[in-house]
């Protein structure tokens, strides 16, 4: 299992720069399980680093535990005790003049819940540190996304003061594959379709085949993956009725992607759904997905998708089967899941193909696109899985099929879809993506028509 820092080079560099040029105020944001704490502990470590991971307790408890952590700066001295946060920050400033100091407050939202004035207190000390060039690097990290964003919002005490603002997102399909030693493209994509790009989920799964992971880590009660989505939602910011949010995610994972479809499926008024969908978006679990046309996104035709593949998998397969799984019928459910898995691979494969086109493909293969997404007609009769646009025109159109072999019928359908977009799509590069390969007839046509052919293995090449 991979233990090195994966795909966090830019964020790590921001932290190194902040550490090397104090005074620095760094705000690190990202939802839970995304690897914030691991990043901080990997990049910022040493004797002159104070790292405090907060949890839900009162202010006195936080101050006492922080004093215990800070005591290593004063070996042999009497026990530390901080009267308040002013005393904490004054202590750090004094210590920094002995040698530069880095202080990390992880899960910062819990500190602020116990002392709501803490951002204002930090602002007052930070302004002095900046004026006096006090050699302190202060890192505020948190998984409460809306809270951490608001921390730096207009009118907030720390507005305009952060020197670096790393935001950690999920890993893409290629980086997620670095957690295992296997090189089989289909197996790697199946693993990604189940676990997604959340680093902690990949760590919990270990370097095992997805069939084994399902039986021992996902469907087995008592394992972290068996409970984590429910646990995170119950503790999410602003979630007061978790059962409704569970129902929303189950509806979306089951194919209800339009606002009215979701409301009908779970049996609540459409007017009550918007705020809950918005909350799931803020938490990073749901994303609004709109068709990408040559003129930009079409927000009036927004649908909703579960952003995290594991959440989608969980609410499609684990949540509705918990009654059986609680009775130990793991093998029975596992067989059903594995028999159905290829039928739901399309979404993960499309995401991987778009990522490949935008991040890994050579420009001479796919051309240049300013935006990448997908497009579908109002009546749903035409869908294009990969759409690239540039300067008001379509630059790339692609069709993704999780089939062993793709034939000429798919190219014909893509030509028809291209024609339906009109003149702005006439010069777009065409691409076909297949699980394993293409028929000889299609390969010959693609060579003549300069259509790009890409297999699952090519996505990792």
Q: What secondary-structure arrangement, pairings included, does this model have?
A:
Blueprint: H1 9-20, E1 24-29, H2 36-43, E2 49-53, H3 59-70, H4 85-96, E3 101-106, H5 108-114, H6 118-132, E4 136-142, H7 145-151, H8 173-176, H9 185-195, H10 199-205, H11 210-218, H12 224-234, H13 242-253, H14 259-266, H15 273-282, E5 286-289, E6 292-293, E7 296-297, E8 303-306, H16 309-318, H17 322-326, H18 330-340, H19 345-360, H20 363-366, E9 371-376, E10 383-390, E11 393-401, E12 405-406, H21 408-420, E13 429-434, E14 437-438, H22 440-449, E15 452-455, H23 456-459
Parallel strand pairs: 1-4, 2-3, 3-4, 11-13, 12-14, 13-15
Antiparallel strand pairs: 5-8, 6-7, 9-10, 10-11
Helix pairs in contact: 4-6, 9-16, 9-19, 13-14, 13-16
Characterization of this structure:
It is a single chain. The chain contains 23 helices and 15 strands. Strands 9-10-11-13-15 form a five-stranded mixed beta sheet, with helices on both faces. By secondary structure, it is of the alpha/beta class. A hairpin with a 2-residue loop joins strand 10 (383-390) and strand 11. The protein starts with 8 loop residues before the first helix and ends with a helix. It folds into three domains: 9-151, Rossmann fold (3-Layer(aba) Sandwich), CATH 3.40.50; 173-344, Arc Repressor Mutant, subunit A, CATH 1.10.10; 361-459, Trna Endonuclease, Chain: A, domain 1 (3-Layer(aba) Sandwich), CATH 3.40.1350.10. The mean pLDDT is 95. The longest helix is centred in the C-terminal third of the chain and has 16 residues, at 345-360.
